């Protein structure tokens, strides 16, 4: 496995792979790799001949009071997992390599970045789409793999790729969960044991929504109220949002007649957790 810390080196490895007609896959990550990332890497491994994983804690997607400084960076452990999963190249640049001077060019997917997580993190998605565009320009993958847990992120990135005619396909892979349903996330480590016990209520509320929809409930307000009742079983959970939206436009649905993205963000102590499901998938 090659580890490239500069853009020039990463490009050289990819160029060599391309000379052998390899399909190139990219799994963009911020490191602190867990079972969710491992599953993305495994899917990418099955589908691409040359597999690159990027590990870069992207400063431009963190707000001023967020956890950029404290974000876990267990580089050696991450590299070991990538080796085990047969990754061909890890691209692990420094912040200076990616942003050598003040960045003046931003990619913002309008509208889609405004609600859900965008409402409380106004500059987050601009940072995500900009760094993904940079990574796509550097690695030039045929496929890039993202997790369904970050539903809004995947929707924005797909739209960016479509609007800007970027020559790659975005593959969204299912959310990986702990046995009790909690979506696996690097931020779960901020939970105290007591908070961890209540964290599966997020997924339980989504399952409740799923059951209601399956039994014919079409009113988003009624579904939301039942979900809130599940979440209120814990006094520690502070709901940031609980939305039922169109999975393409992210606009709130007034009645459920087709697919719906049901998305939650909640705070449990220091941890901000997100989760979602898509119901009535065609
Ligand atoms: O999902 C993440 O880990 C990040 O937002 C991403 C896509 C790697 C961009 O920094």
What is the compact description of this entry?
The protein is an alpha/beta fold and 282 residues long.
Main sheet summary: 6 strands, parallel
Rg, rounded, reads 19 Å
Cα-to-Cα separation, first versus last residue:
40 Å
Described by the principal axes of the CA atoms, the overall outline is: globular
* CATH homology superfamily of the largest domain: HUPs
**Which architecture of the largest domain per CATH?**
3-Layer(aba) Sandwich
The CATH class of the largest domain: Alpha Beta
The low-pLDDT segments are none
Overall mean confidence score, pLDDT: 97
CATH topology of the largest domain: Rossmann fold
Output the strand order for the largest sheet: 1-4-3-2-5-6
Helix and strand pattern: EHEHEHEHHHEHEHHHEEE
How many strands appear in the DSSP assignment?
9
Share of residues in strands: 15-25%
Number of helices: 10
Going by helix content, strand content and strand pairing, the class is alpha/beta
Bound molecules: pantoate
Topology of this structure?
Blueprint: E1 2-4, H1 7-19, E2 24-29, H2 35-47, E3 50-55, H3 75-84, E4 89-91, H4 95-98, H5 117-120, H6 124-139, E5 143-147, H7 151-163, E6 169-173, H8 193-198, H9 201-214, H10 220-231, E7 237-245, E8 260-268, E9 271-279
Parallel strand pairs: 1-4, 2-3, 2-5, 3-4, 5-6
Antiparallel strand pairs: 7-8, 8-9
Helix pairs in contact: 6-7, 9-10
Bound molecules: pantoate.
Residues 28-30, 58, 61, 128, 131-132, 150, 153 line the site of pantoate.
